[in-house]
Amino acid sequence: MGTSSDVIEYTIHDCSSFSTNFHPENILVDNPSNSKSRWTTQNSEPVHWILLRLNNLSILTNACNMKEFKVYIGITPENMTQVLHSSLKNDSIRESFSIRHHNSAGRCFPTRFIKIEPLSVYGQSFSTSIWHVSLTGIINEASVEEVKRDYDQFRETRVMQHILKHLRQRRLLTPYNSILTQSGVRLEHPLVTQLYESIVLTGDWDKAETILHDISVAGLFDQYLKSSHPRAVWRELHDTDVNGDIPSVRSGHAMCIDTKRGYIYLFGGWDGHKSLDDFWRYDIKEQRWAIISTSTSLELNAPGPRSCHKMVYDSKTDCIYILGRLHDLDKPATRAQSRNAEIVPTNSSQRVSVAADETPTLSSRPMPSPEFYRYHCEHNKWEHLDIDENGPRTIFDHQMIIDSESQILFVFGGRAAEKDFDYSGLYSYDVHLKKWCLLQATDSAIPSRFGHSMIFEPTSRELYIFAGEREDRFLSDMYIYDIATNNATEVFSNFTSSGGPQPCFTQRAVVDPSLQEIYMSVWISHWLYRYSSRPGKWEKIHTFEEHQKRSASPSSSPSQDGTRANPPPRFAHQVVYDPDSKTVYLHGGTMMVDSDLTKLREGNDGLSEEAPMKRLSDFWKMTLWRLSSSELIRRSAYLIRQQQFKEMCKTQAPVQSLIYLQNHVSQVVNHDDPNETQLFRSLLTYLLDPSSPVSMSPASPSIGYAGLETSDLQKLSPSQGQGGLEMQTSEGPYEKTLRPTQESLSQASFDQRTKTFEDILEFIADDAKQPAGSLLDLVDDLL
């Protein structure tokens, strides 16, 4: 399918209202200098909207230049789906928004109509206005028709799957099997079908547990495992060099990692009194520090003391690049004379200053030479590189990454370290050509900033830029820059409102492309951002101790030495990531003293004007503990053995049932989890009354029961439908063929087995199981 984006032509189909001389057709023309070139609504209308009709069926991928708004798309005006909820800035700069054009199953869908619904405006006394809308996407007729055919087929299949699910839940298995055979539609993975038959239809419990292992081997648990909440396992590293030395206390230093050899490099920083120029290497395998140079300024073509610089490792050439600096040239007489007094990020946009006499300062004197260096690791040799007129000035608190495959460096943001202290834009540096290029100016689609984060996604060749500070304000936005097209798209205008961290500054972030996850260290917390789908999902990473406090229960965390300690809150630290071992390494930074830290945690406004700081030299590593497939097998086996025990209580002597409970059910219980043990003890009531229900809470954080509620079980039982039709849910002909020698299965047992099966389905990948939701809910949507 063609993937190139073209301009999509459209006409105005309808709108809620418009003011005189401000017709909706005005948005077809991009003329920001003409005050009448816009669509403006009438204030009398409670809800405002404008409906666009594309000239041809297309796949919409972007919408370009109201404040907050929503966008809906659909093939017809009567059936439209929300694909965007975002906001515009109050300026004349064009903004581009990525439009969701895939459904939850990953299927691309076309559109003919686009509805824009303004929700709020800048200034309560103004009517809603839209100046211009430009659309881009795929308009190639053959490609769009292919997508439409695929999407129509997907909808037909999904409807049939809902019908099959509905029939099977209601024990209408004969028509279910007939439709399944004639239509050729696959409801689920064959292993899941075998699991259903073993649990619900035949009650072959041993076979069901065997199938669980087959399901795990087939990778059907992988989606759930990847989406499960990880727990941070921290361990402090006390390794030294051969003389017992380690890098001294510092913040604002730089680190990079050679993942192939297992080396972490550390250079420079600020120790509270002066900038540093020592150069270190940590050997991950040998667990040993080694000092490469005690003072690089004494070496030929090497960088001098500095902080707030950036350093990257190029795996293709075995070289390290260093760019930028903040030098302690002149100390200000007062705090007001220092523009860059260190700022402590808090849980809001609050800013806390630290003593200016301990902070490196901006200099009004120009730097003597470009601060761009290359270190050849194999030859232990420095090289001073030039920055031409197309490159950045001497900057600090910027971000830099390297695409080793294409041999291109990317630098974004930061502030000039001399004269006017301007913000810096987005630049690239071609290693082969030795040339710089300005890709995005300072006031372009991505607002310039400093103290932000930037990561490189190698598969899509995109830059993720987020957070930082601009104009004395902490940011919580995120942009994705497409290297191939030189286009930037705002993903979040405020990721805090989407479940992400508070606006932040000097946070640190690393990426794992294989997992499509970004790990972010923000002062007193750590976050995980999954970007497999747009706009992505934020999730706070808790330690095991935090998880225990939140769940009020012990957890099955690793019990090795050092895993219980966590690094204290800090900023201006450095982190690197080893994707092979899935390990984050953290070093140094600045922390507040305990008294002010306590006030900051509690949100107390009574912080000292200049909070005392402490630089750190500690070194930590963090791994994320995640659920394993063996844990899901255990949880599923627990569900199966519970159901087997309940049925034994109805058909066998209490002594035999009790022995099974003690020897077999107990075997798959996590006795360290009070939720599981409480449920286990409650099973004893079945020995006294086999018909008594045992509540399996869907909210249990360990078991993860998210199956049918009591109301859903009632729906599965015989019920009086409209028109006086009573559904027959007894054993049908097809079901009898599966149990020719067994007694008929009661409806209550069928319902319980179905619930057990659907509880286990929560662990199965979406594309391998019956669709979520109920056919009854789909009918409600049509009423």
Automatic annotation (TrEMBL):
Residues 545-573, 714-751 are annotated as: Disordered. Keywords: Kelch repeat, Repeat. One of its GO terms (cellular component) is cytoplasm. It comes from the Eukaryota. Residues 739-751 have a biased composition (Polar residues). Pfam families: Kelch_KLHDC2_KLHL20_DRC7 (PF24681), Muskelin_N (PF06588). SUPFAM superfamilies: Galactose oxidase, central domain (SSF50965), Galactose-binding domain-like (SSF49785), Kelch motif (SSF117281). Residues 6-190 form the Muskelin N-terminal domain. This is Muskelin N-terminus-domain-containing protein.
